[in-house]
Amino acid sequence: MTSVAATSDVRPAPALPRLPSLTGLRWIAALLVFGFHAGTMRIIAEPDYKAVIDALFTLGLSGVQFFFILSGFVLVWSAREGDSRRTFWRRRIAKIYPNHLVLWAATLVVAWWFADPVLPAAALENLLLLQAWDPRPGWFYSINTVSWSLSCEFFFYLCLPLALPLLRRARPKLLWALIVALPLLILALWPAQELVPEVSRWWFTQIFPPVRSLEFWLGAVAAELMRRGLWRGPGLTVASGIFLVTWVTAAQWIRAELWTTLLAVAYLLVITAAADADVRGRRSPWRSRPLVWLGEVSFAFYLVHVLVMTSVLRWSGTWGIGFEGWRGPAVVLGFLVANLILAGLLHRFVETPMMRRLAPRRAARPAPVPRQRTAGDDDARDPASSARGEAGGAADEVGQAGGRSPYVDLR
């Protein structure tokens, strides 16, 4: 069982460590979504080859679920006491909006090239990230289709500064009750959809921001428990095993209304276990340099991949037909590489510089005041807790020197 060492008083740590493993895991989630779309776009015409993609990525759409849970966890973990709501909102807008704006404009250019009709009202909704609130078929997938998730994230960002003081003051029993209740509420959405007109049921269960916020709050509550040193869960190896068993079982035998709940729990266990490994300095395969870089560009990758693939398939005349033989898998790999290159450029020349320009700078944290240790001191009982402040302080210096937040940023 893993946990962050409990402390006798819940005081905000002078600095919390970075969680690079969560950055690496972001790439895995983005890859799941990519694989799902590669399968549903019928890029591979050969049935045997396509069956492999389908088997591996049948549940790839749940990668967005992972992003939402991770977003809630990271934002609560990295929240600083004293940050104003305006500062928080400005930082989040600076993170997501420049990339969104570039892809919004690029999608309109592609639509003009193919002479696709564009509804001005739909384009405006998408530009303002309001499309997830519109249940009309096609509207929530307007312009750059994947940006519906940004519309949800934008809602989460608006809510978090209002809810965070309550979360900070909540008693542990209430937090644990929420950890149990939130997956059950996700499960309850499936019978609840019967109350919604049939044409809007997909929107209600998969798009509607308050519904998708259940996953965000699940991550947020877990982060608060871990921040206080109260989280109890399996280690990274066991959590990863639970996820793999859940993934395989759900893909083969479990209905969608059940696997969404089971995967939410499995994802949460992996996220908390990876975070705990980083806090304690334990081994984690997810914080290698290549994976961390892939995680850093995963947001840009997610935004570009569908537009690139659909545009190339339409231009080549293979949309809905696919490529025969070995060319199908080769094209999928080519799309993977091309999207990574474009994502790297977008991250390097848009996302990073615009974050530096638009986001408010974090003030340097004051050095922690030394205090006399006693035989019963919590830090003396757990060396990891004393290292935590040092690691976080060093991360702050590195992050500020690099001109970006020292914390993992989801979007």
TrEMBL record:
Entry keyword Nucleus:
no
Q: Which domain of life is it from?
A: Bacteria
Where is the chain membrane-spanning? 27-45, 51-76, 96-115, 146-167, 174-191, 203-223, 235-254, 260-279, 291-310, 330-350
**Which keywords annotate this record?**
Membrane, Transmembrane, Transmembrane helix
Pfam family of this protein, just one? Acyl_transf_3
- What are the residue boundaries of the Acyltransferase domain, all occurrences included? 21-347
Alphabetized InterPro entries for the sequence: Acyl_transf_3_dom, Acyltransferase_3
Renumbered residue ranges of the record's region Disordered: 361-411
Instruction: List where Low complexity composition bias occurs.
Output: 383-399
What's this protein's name?
Peptidoglycan/LPS O-acetylase OafA/YrhL
